[in-house]
Each structure stands twice: as structure tokens, then as C-alpha cells.
Amino acid sequence: MGILDKLKDLAGFGARAEKQLGQRLPKTPEGYTINIRLPIMPYRERPKGEIIERYPIYDPWAMVSIILSESTNEYVYFIDETPLSEEEIKIYRRVIDFLLWEVGELKEGEDPKDFIVREAKRAIDLFRTRAKRTYNVSWDKILYYIEREVKGFGPINVLMLDPNLEDISCNGVGLPIYVYHRKYESMPTNIIFQNEEDLSSFVIKLAHMAGKHISVAFPVLDASLPGGHRLVATFAKEVSQKGSAFAIRKFREDPLTVVDMIGLGTISPELAAYLWFLIEHKKTFLIMGVTGSGKTTLLNAILNLVRPNYKIVTIEDTPEIRLPTKNWVQLVSRPSYAAGESKAGEITLYDLVKISLRYRPDVIVVGEVRGSEAYVLFQAIATGHGGATTIHAESIDAAIKRLTSPPMNIPESYIPLINSALMIERVPVRGKDGATRISRRVTRIWEIDKNATPIIIGKWSPSKDTHLLTLDKSPMLNSIAESLEISISEVLDEIRMRASFMRWLYYNNIRNYIDIASAIYKYYRSPKEIMSLVEADLGHVSENTWN
Asked: Which 3 state secondary structure label does DSSP give 87?
């Protein structure tokens, strides 16, 4: 019997299908070949309070409401998923049962999840045409839940689909999953795992989706999910007292660009132009901040300003950087294949930084320095390569102390190789409406002199929410001017012109990273032509904004 015949028989609830399944597999009390789990649903009881915002995620089956709770006075991320009816649950179970035991063969090269969803659609179509008494049954809703469980992320699928969310975290059994919303920040959801079995099973599913293993023997996992999302998880109560736990840092398909950051106020057009000028002359910069401050996002945005003909090599533990250039070598570390303390097959950041020099890069980028790879990176920078990296630190002094201490062990004589250092923070910002919100800002910009002394050349003003730069006093810009045999005023004019170009990109909503790269390419190819467009749109910028 072919797969289509099996589907027809099962869709008609025929005795032949029941007999075939019953002969091969034991029946459960419910009459199915296995005990099929129903989808874990968010809590339906809506908290009392004002609905601040409501938007669809998977219309019409999944909606999200941001509610200001009366009892706690905090925002709640409330998911409203239309539940399956009793009749729909029966059909759902039969379709899943079929997919588990009666599905046909997977074609070579076909994605297993796409294959399962396609077979589910065929099964549902046959159920729909053959079933005679299916009142108030939504076949599209059944398919939604099948895709949610098979192809998606199950109970957190809505969270993964919401582009407004940055982070998702589950802290244990009986606790609400928390999310970090770009507009409303951290808040609880109405998704709660009520027992350890469900939570541990879900953590195992996440591990499998990442192509990794997690168990009592190996209870800690750091991996990448499909789509580039970063996963960290702990299993059962081996290391986390509240049971299994996980956190997901979502990867944006449409990354924030330098133009987005200008619009958000994270950086100013002048600061963007200054960094662009430094990168062009193969200078190095270090981005500092605490966890979640936006270091990697800022790094990625700045790297999109690299000169089009430059070769870039990026080195990361988890691939997060996305660049428009084709002249880009993307290297990713690899953990050991062996169990226990064996390091067989492991490829570290240190190994990758060493091999990166063989690619003859113009710019070497390490996503984050934590260990001995920092020493090799600084040696590469000393040979004339441009460089960039990030580091967890709350100040420039703390960053230098980390760099010069084990396990990085950078000699103090190498610290001046950091040409520019930026601190990015999440700070309270008062908006035009008078409300205070937490936003990301580059709060300090330093240059390091020959004596390894940090010199502030820019800072963020909280009262005005603007960046104040003193670039005419920049040792690095003066050094570049001297090497080019031009005056510092000519360098400042060039940076001022690029700042106008950045404003022009913003006002014309040229924000996609590929479009920005194309505009920068045109700037290098025909600067006069581009600047004539800029001046026509914005007017000639003659005001001195550096003091």
C-alpha cells in the first residue's frame, strides 16, 4: 500500500488503518499507538490591567498583548493563542500519530521538517475531504499547531516569531518565562512549565534542534539554534536548583545598522563618521560594556562601514556578525567531539586567530576576547592589520586590567595598539513626551596615547541626549593627518562631510545593511556626485560641531 492509500484510509477512520497499526504497535488507553503529547499552552487568564499594545504574530491564531498589570504595576507579555477544541484535538492526535509511524520516505536533500509539514498538510486535506461530521473544526488551526510543534519551537514559538524580542529566558519549573522587549524591556509572559518532565523534554528538544546533546552526564549546553539564535541551557537539577533552565538570545534576520543606531540615538552621525575614518585607515577599536549592553550589535554596525575592497576575517564562538561584503572569511570555533576532559577535535579562538593571518586580511575581528586569543590578536594588530573586538568591562580601566591580567596577559606596552575605545551602556533617557526609558548609548569615547593613558575625546550628555566630541584634539586623527601630509582641519572637514552623508542616509531611510554598503561604495567611487546629492537634500554643512 502506498503512502497516499494509507493517508486515505487513515483519513476515513477505516478499519484497515486501525488493524495495520494495531498489529505492529501496542495500543495505549486512549486508543493511539503512543501517548501523544498535546501542545503546551500559555495560561488563558488575562491579568487585570490596561492593554498598552496589541499586535498579531500569526494571525488569526496567535496575538500578543502588552498589559500593564494592576496588581504588580509591571508590564506583562500576554500571548493569546486560540486553543484547539475537543474535536480538533482528536484530529490533531490522529495526524501526529500518522506522521510518527506511517510517513513515507524522505527524499535526498529535503529538509525533514519541511517534509513532515508537507505530509501533515496532505493528511489534513484528506481528513477534510473524507470526514463527514466535523462541526466547528478549523483545519488551518490544526495545521498551525502541527507546524508550531514539528517545525517551530513549540510553546515558545510565538516568542521566537516576535521580532520585537531580544532575549527569552526560563528560570525553572513553575516560573513564568521572561522576555526582553525592545520597547518595554524585561517582563514576564503567561508561559509556565508546570512540571520538570515537560521542561526537561523541551530543553532536550532545543538541544536536538541545535545539533547538540544535553543530559545528566553533560548538563550544561552552549550552542546555536537554527536561525543563528544563541542558546544556553542547564539540565534537570544537576547545576540549577530550580530544575532545567534555558536562555535564548535571538539573532535578528534584519540586523541593526549604523543608520538605525543614529535614529535610536545610540551614536551620532559625527561619531559614526569618526569611526568610519579610523577603520578606513586600519586603526583598531575596542567596544566595552556589560552583558546585554549591545556590544556585538554595535560592532556589526561599525563593520558595515569598512571600505568595500578591504578583506575582513571574523572569528567568533557563535556566528553573530553579518556583513554585506563578499570579501569576508567567517571563522567559528568548534568544541571537542570527545566526551569528558579530552580536547580531541577542539578548535579554539586562539587557533583561529593564528590561522587568520594566513588569509592576509585588512581587518581582523574577534567577536569577544576572553583568553589567550587576545595576545595573538594584539600581535596581528602590531603588524599593521586593522582590528576590532569587544570585551566585558564596565570602564576603560577595568578593560585594561582584564587585558593585562591572566588569561589574556597582554603586555602593557601593547595597550597603545588600541587606537579607540568605546563604552556602550543601557541608560535612562527622557523622551520628548517626558517619559523615561532605558536606551542604549555610547557614553564615552577614548583614544589611548603612547603611554597607555586613555584620553577622552567624546562623551554622551544625559541632559541633552547628544554626543559631544572634541575631535580636533584627537591624537589619532592628528597622527593620520601627519602621515597623509595634510592638516588636521582637512581631516575634520572630511569627517564632517561623512557625517553629512550619514545624516543623508538616515533622512532618506537607507537603513538596510546591503543598501548602506552600496551607498558607501558609491561614496568612494564618486564622492563629488554623492555629496552634491547630500547638499541638495540637507544643505551645505558649515557649522563647527566638534566643540
From this structure: helix
Residue 509 pLDDT level (bands cut at 50, 70, 90): very high
Return the amino acid letter for 258.
Answer: V
Angle at 243 between CA 238 and CA 248, to 5 degrees: 100
Which three cell numbers, joined as nine digits, stand for 396? 576603560
Q: Residue 351 in contact with residue 358, Cβ under 8 Å?
A: no
Please answer whether residues 417 and 379 qualify as being in contact, where contact means their C-beta atoms are separated by less than 8 angstroms: no
d(CA 69, CA 142): 32
Q: Which residue has the cell 541638495?
A: 536
**Rg for the chain (alpha carbons), in Å?**
28
Q: Evaluate whether 476 touches 420 at the Cβ level (below 8 Å).
A: yes
Residue 110: the pLDDT is 76
DSSP state of 338: S
- And the C-alpha cell for 163? 521580532
Rounded distance between C-alpha atoms, residue 523 and residue 87, angstroms: 62
How many whole angstroms separate alpha carbon 280 and alpha carbon 47? Answer: 53
Q: What are the chain's domains?
A: 1-35+86-136 (no CATH), 43-81+154-251 (3.30.450.380), 258-469 (3.40.50.300)
* The three-state (H, E, C) secondary structure of 439-466, written as one string: EEEEEEEEEECCCCCEEEEEEEECCCCE
| DSSP 8-state secondary structure symbol assigned to residue 240 | -
Which amino acid would we find at residue 282? Answer: K
| Residues paired with residue 331 on neighbouring β-strands, in sequence order | 315
Give the dihedral sign, CA 451/418/257/363. Answer: positive
* Residues 6+ positions from 111 with CB-CB distance below 8 Å: none
CA dist list (Å): 520 to 270, 409, 536:
16, 38, 18
Establish how many alpha carbons lie within 13 A of residue 527's alpha carbon, considering only the half-sphere containing its beta carbon. 5
Beta strands in 449-520, from DSSP E residues, in sequence order: 454-461, 466-469
Give the predicted TM-score (pTM) of the model: 0.82
pLDDT band at 547 (very low <50, low <70, confident <90, very high): very low
* Interatomic CA distance for residues 544 and 129, integer angstroms: 74
Q: Give the DSSP per-residue string, 18-34.
A: HHHHHHHSPPPTTSSSS
Q: What is the DSSP string of 160-224?
A: HH-TTEEEEEE-STTSEEEEEETTTEEEEEEEE--SHHHHHHHHHHHHHHTT----SSS-EEEEE
For residue 334, what is the DSSP state? B
Whole-angstrom distance, CA of residue 430 vs CA of residue 460: 14
Residue 400: closest CA among 383, 413, 387: 413
Q: Is 347 helix (H, G, I), strand (E, B) or coil?
A: strand
The pLDDT confidence band at residue 55, using thresholds 50, 70 and 90, is: very high
- Asked whether the beta carbons of 384 and 281 are under 8 A apart, the reply is no
SS3 425: strand
